[in-house]
Specification:
heterodimer, A: 111 residues, mainly beta, six-stranded mixed β-sheet, five-stranded antiparallel β-sheet, 0% helix, B: mainly beta, seven-stranded mixed β-sheet, four-stranded antiparallel β-sheet, 11 strands
């Protein structure tokens, strides 16, 4: 089983739509969670950290469910510029501070 | 925000030659840097954790003699792909975090990546 699993998509949605991605992780001791965004042939960039209480940043909302070991990202009012691959990232509970990436979910927002 | 600079952004080399990729943290000290590899339409796969002043820690399945990592200073880590072959062609990305023991949510900053093509 992969440490971090995501539906690869693609999710093809019209502008203005609401879209949600889920991600599951295998290490129940994991402590830190993130969503990164990666555009084609570019480096990943942090979208938001995911906190236990859930957090929101504008049109983006992240949720963490520790009991079920999954993380979600909700994007409201999708924009064309939201088209990208969204990477679920987990920091396993060890001393290395390394990040483990999911395979990414591709989002295509059409006019 | 912190910036990580990676060089070169792309390189084409002949099979059998070695290629060095540099990763620099520009405005913070990075005691730990990470090297990833990404094949087309796949996720970033962690290759190794580079620790300043000590040997790198390699992930399972990554050949340490083929992918030489040197982290000689707090702002520079290098990855050398030795005797490169076409199957080593990939997108290599470095990352660094400002380690804060009280906050595991510190952002990881990524270099721009190096697209290696071995012909």
């Amino acid at each position: 089983r992969k440490e971090v699993e995501q539906d690869p998509g693609p999710f093809n949605v019209p502008e203005g739509a609401t879209v949600a991605f889920n991600c599951t992780y295998s290490n129940s001791a994991s402590q830190s969670f993130f969503w990164y965004r990666q555009d084609c042939r570019k480096e990943p960039k942090l979208l938001m950290s995911v906190y236990s209480s859930g957090n929101e940043d504008g049109r983006f909302t992240a949720q963490l469910n520790r009991a079920s070991q999954y993380i979600s990202l909700l994007i409201r009012d999708s924009k064309l510029s939201d088209s990208a691959t969204y990477l679920c990232v987990v920091n396993p509970m060890d001393s290395s501070y390394k990040l483990i990436f999911g395979s990414g979910t591709r989002l295509l927002v059409r006019p | 925000g912190a910036v990580v600079s990676q060089h070169p952004s792309w390189v084409i080399c002949k099979s059998g030659t070695s290629v060095k990729i540099e990763c620099r943290s520009l405005d913070f000290q990075a005691t730990t840097m990470f090297w990833y590899r990404q094949f087309p339409k796949q996720s970033l796969m962690l290759m190794a954790t580079s620790n300043e002043g000590s040997k790198a820690t390699y992930e399972q399945g990554v050949e340490k003699d083929k992918f030489l990592i040197n982290h000689a200073s707090l702002t520079l880590s290098t990855l050398t792909v030795t005797s490169a072959h076409p199957e080593d062609s990939s997108f290599y990305i470095c990352s660094a975090r400002e380690i804060d023991l009280s906050d595991r949510n510190t952002e990881a900053f990524f270099g721009q990546g190096t697209r290696l093509t071995v012909v």
